[in-house]
Design a protein that fits this description.
Elements lengths: L1 H16 L35 E11 L12 H12 L4 E12 L1 H4 E2 L7 H6 L9 E6 L1 E2 L4 E3 L6 E5 L6 H10 L72 H13 L1 H4 L2 E2 L6 E2 L4 E2 L5 E6 L6 E5 L3 E3 L7 E6 L6 E9 L4 E8 L8 E4 L10 E4 L2
Parallel strand pairs: 1-2, 1-4, 3-5, 4-7, 10-16
Antiparallel strand pairs: 1-8, 6-7, 9-11, 11-14, 12-15, 13-14, 15-16, 17-18
C-alpha cells in the first residue's frame, strides 16, 4: 500500500509539473544502436533462455583527494545482491570482480550541467576494466542520480544514495541495450542520436519498431494510467519509481545484445556461483527424499511445497526433506525455494507409486458377455 501511495504521489507530481521527476535520476542519453532485426548474431548460445549468462561488474568508489568520503565498501555485496534480485529471474547473474578507490575530488561530485558531459566522460575512462560493467559510485551528481555511458555500453555512474537500489539495475539495463519504456514519446526529449525513435501506439501495433522496441512492455507516455495508456508501472526501465522487475521481452533483448555485441561478450564470465536445486523424479509415501541447494552463498531460504506433499522435519537454509502427504497422494508435485537475493528455484516431480507396466497384462474382449477389457495385475 505504501508503494502505491508513493507511485500515486509521483504521478500527481508528473502531471502538475509536466516534467519527469525521474529524469533527474536517470541521465542516460539515447545513443543510437541498431534494432534487433539489424543485429548480426555472432554467438547464438546467448539466445537461449535456458543458458545462464554470468555478467561481470566492477565497482569504482570515488573519494576526495585525501581519501575521505565515498561509499563504505562493506555495502558492495548488498549492491550485487540487489542486482541479482532484478536479473536472476531471467537466468542472468551478476558477478562482482571487486572494487578500487578513485581518490579525486574533481569527480567526487559530478558537476556537469546542461548538455555538458565533460566530467562524466573523463570519469568513466579511469581504471576502466574491459571485461566488466564498470560502476562508478560518486557522492553526488548535480543533474542525475544514475547515468549509463549510452545504450549498450560497459560503464555507468551512480550516486552513492542510489547505489543499493534498483536505480543501479536500471542503468545496467541501459548498458545491456534496454531503452526507457517511454522511449520515443514526447516525455523523452528528442535526440538526433537515435533517428529510429518514435512513440509506441497504445494498441502496440508498432511495438517492434517504436517505443522501447519490446512488445511485452505496454505503450508508455510517462503519464501513468491516463489518456488510454496502461503502462507497467513496476518495470525497472520506466520512470515510475520504485520499480522491481524486467519483462521477458526485455530479457530476450538483453540476450540478443550479448549474442551480437563483442563489447558485451567481453564482460561474460564463468565464475558466477549459480544456486541450483538437486533433482528427483518421483516421490512416494513410503520413502522420503531430501532436496538440497548448491551455491547458496550467504542467502537465506524460504521454502514452499505443493499441497500433495509434506515436509519432515523443519527445512534448513540449504535443504528440505519431503514425502507424499498420504498413501493416496498422486499427481504433479513441486518444491520452491525463494532466496533472499530474489532468486526463485523450483523442482517438479511426480507424486505417488508409479505403475510397473512390466507386471500388468492388457486383456481385450470385444464380444458381449465376456470378461471386460482392461488392465489386469499378474499375481
Amino acid at each position: 500500500m505504501e508503494i502505491m501511495k508513493t507511485k500515486k504521489l509521483l504521478l500527481i507530481t508528473f502531471l502538475i509539473l509536466n516534467t519527469a521527476i525521474f529524469g533527474q535520476i536517470c541521465g542516460t542519453l539515447p545513443i543510437e544502436t541498431s534494432k534487433n532485426t539489424q543485429k548480426t548474431v555472432t554467438n547464438s548460445q546467448f539466445l537461449s533462455s535456458s543458458n545462464s549468462i554470468c555478467i561481470n561488474v566492477y565497482y569504482h568508489i570515488v573519494r576526495e583527494n585525501n581519501g575521505n568520503g565515498g561509499l563504505n565498501s562493506n555495502q558492495l555485496d548488498n549492491i550485487t545482491n540487489t542486482l541479482n534480485a532484478a536479473y536472476n529471474e531471467h537466468n542472468l547473474y551478476i558477478n562482482s570482480l571487486g572494487f578500487d578507490y578513485i581518490n579525486n575530488s574533481t569527480y567526487y561530485n559530478i558537476n556537469d550541467t546542461g548538455n555538458s558531459t565533460t566530467e562524466f566522460d573523463a570519469l568513466v575512462q579511469i581504471n576502466n576494466l574491459p571485461n566488466a560493467i564498470n560502476i562508478y559510485i560518486v557522492n553526488d551528481a548535480i543533474s542525475y542520480a544514475g547515468k549509463a555511458n549510452g545504450i549498450l555500453s560497459q560503464a555507468l555512474v551512480i550516486e552513492r544514495n542510489y547505489a543499493n537500489t534498483q536505480v543501479t539495475s536500471h542503468e545496467v539495463g541501459h548498458c545491456l541495450d534496454l531503452w526507457h519504456t517511454f522511449h520515443g514519446s514526447i516525455a523523452e526529449p528528442p535526440s538526433s542520436l537515435d533517428p529510429n525513435a518514435c512513440p509506441e501506439l497504445i494498441n502496440g501495433n508498432n511495438c517492434s519498431s517504436c517505443g522501447d522496441y519490446v512488445c511485452d512492455t505496454p505503450a508508455d507516455a510517462n503519464t501513468g494510467n491516463s489518456g488510454g495508456y496502461t503502462p507497467d508501472m513496476d518495470n525497472i526501465m520506466s520512470y515510475y519509481y520504485p520499480f522491481n522487475h524486467f519483462s521477458n521481452g526485455q530479457a530476450v533483448r538483453i540476450r540478443q545484445a550479448f549474442a551480437s555485441s563483442s563489447l558485451l561478450q567481453q564482460v561474460v564470465s564463468n565464475n558466477c556461483s549459480i544456486a541450483e536445486l538437486s533433482s528427483i523424479d518421483n516421490l512416494c509415501f513410503t520413502n522420503d527424499k531430501t532436496i538440497t541447494i548448491s551455491n547458496l552463498g550467504n542467502n537465506t531460504t524460504s521454502w514452499q511445497v505443493s499441497s500433495n506433499i509434506s515436509i519432515i522435519p523443519s527445512p534448513t537454509n540449504n535443504s528440505i526433506t519431503i514425502k507424499a502427504l498420504n498413501s493416496t497422494s498422486s499427481g504433479n508435485g513441486w518444491v520452491k525455494a525463494t532466496l533472499s537475493n530474489g532468486t526463485i528455484l523450483q523442482e517438479n516431480f511426480a507424486v505417488g507409486v508409479p505403475y510397473d507396466y512390466n507386471n500388468w497384462t492388457i486383456a481385450i474382449h470385444p464380444y458381449p458377455g465376456n470378461t471386460p477389457s482392461g488392465l489386469y495385475l499378474n499375481n
